[in-house]
Amino acid sequence: MKKNTLFSMVAFLALGMSFMSCKDEENPTTVPSTTTPTTTRLVATLNGASEKPTSTTSAATGNFVGDLNTTTRVLSYTLTYTGPFSSSLTGGHLHRITNANGTGPIDVQFNSLTSPITGTTAALPQAKVDSMLNGFYYANLHTTLYPAGEIRGDIKKQ
Questions:
Q1: Does the pLDDT of residue 107 top 70, yes or no?
Q2: Nearest CA among 139, 140, 138, 150 for reference residue 83
Q3: Average confidence (pLDDT) over 7-35
């Protein structure tokens, strides 16, 4: 009987010790309650005065709102505008600023010129994401009279 009691106590202690060893206080498995957002809101106000290298006197205006997911590197955007424009719209894009005068090449082509203009990019290279986050992009709408751009807005973090 003493042997069975001793064996039972040893088994009970061993079982208790194994449950206690499962708790890992130094490396908790819970996710912290605060997480870093992966989406950054980008905005721009478009007008003729902001056009570079030469401003215009266009009465047209616009607003750009974009959400840049920094994990997937995908930009979803909406650009709305109101006229009147000086002439017919011929193009609309996002440009990456690469020149000292604040201009640069087309980087994201708009698929439509009808307001609201909406779109989503494919995954962008990290260098382009970094440039967007650091203010090196602008939205631009071009017309027949102003082929270099009638209204423009520099894209900034909101």
A1: yes
A2: 150
A3: 51
